[in-house]
Amino acid sequence: MPLIHCEGVSKYYRMGDEPVHALDNVSFDVEQGEFVAIMGPSGSGKSTLMNIIGCLDVADQGQYDLDGTAVARLKDNQLAEIRNRKIGFVFQSFNLLPRLSAYENVELPLTYRGVPRKERAILVTKALESVELLDRKAHRPAELSGGQQQRIAIARALAGDPPILLADEPTGALDTRTGQEIMELLKRLHALGRTIIVITHDPAIASQAQRIIRIRDGRIVV
Ligand code: ADP
Ligand code: ADP
Q1: Which residue has the CA at smallest separation from atom 11 of ligand 2?
Q2: Alpha carbon of residue 80 to chain centroid
Q3: Residue of 9, 90, 112, 206 with fewest CB within 10 Å of its CB?
Q4: Residue 147 Cα, ligand 2 centroid: separation in angstroms?
Q5: Domains in the chain, ordered, with CATH?
Q6: 11 CB near ligand 2 (under 6 Å)
Q7: pTM
Q8: What is the pLDDT of residues 96-143, one digit of tens each?
Q9: ipTM of the assembly?
Q10: How far, in Å, is the centroid of ligand 1 from the Cα of 215?
């Protein structure tokens, strides 16, 4: 069974009288352990697709199964629950909380999920080690370089051990060299067995994945 199964997924937005077909009959699978890039130009539907894959939104038509669960049938609270268990999000702009230390940023989602303190300490330490930033755990985001901030954000995404890491333009706010370091980190995490999906407009980023899913005008291009 694929980890992600999209079949005939469509999503519309209404702009006045005209419906915008943000996703039009999109079908693809992602298997456990794959490293996939979803690539397309601005306006092609990447964010819409990311929101559906990440259970932030549901399709208007079609089937989306996440690790065997039919997402369209879930209620809002169940959607949040499957999102928290299955997906680790990484964003272009890091989205770290500025007043919290690196450690506290990584810990926060675990606290929300009710993970007890001792177990949190083990998970946070492990996650910070996996991005090689345990020695920066007391730093606040502003005291870290951009690349380090993104690595903290990756540690936060990994702390709960989700099967999928979903990264939206993870190198978009970084210079080329630092962005490449983030890609190398994602490759190492992939080599350790994590399923990784990177959403990008950048062919130089997408070409580093095992497989590219190209999207244009809301459709998969083959
Ligand atoms: P990308 O992430 O590739 O830039 P999006 O998924 O954001 O693409 O957008 C796909 C299409 O849907 C575009 O035509 C965009 O203008 C439209 N769209 C996205 N979000 C909305 C919205 N909330 N309301 C109306 N149209 C939207
Ligand atoms: P990089 O070599 O990854 O580009 P920097 O040269 O920006 O990183 O930072 C080197 C070290 O200095 C980092 O490990 C970081 O912890 C620390 N550092 C960076 N910026 C600040 C700052 N504004 N205040 C305190 N420490 C900082």
Answers
A1: 144
A2: 15
A3: 112
A4: 10
A5: 4-221 (3.40.50.300)
A6: no
A7: 0.88
A8: 999 999 999 999 999 999 999 999 999 999 999 999 999 999 999 999
A9: 0.69
A10: 13
176 Cβ below 6 A of ligand 1: no
Q: Which ligand is nearest to the CA of 26?
A: 1
Instruction: Kindly state if the Cβ of 147 falls inside 6 Å of ligand 1.
Output: no
Q: In what order do the strands lie in the sheet with 164-168?
A: 87-90, 164-168, 195-200, 35-39, 211-216, 219-221
Q: Among 143, 175, 177, 182, which is best to mutate for testing ligand 2, by the most ligand atoms less than 8 A from CB?
A: 143
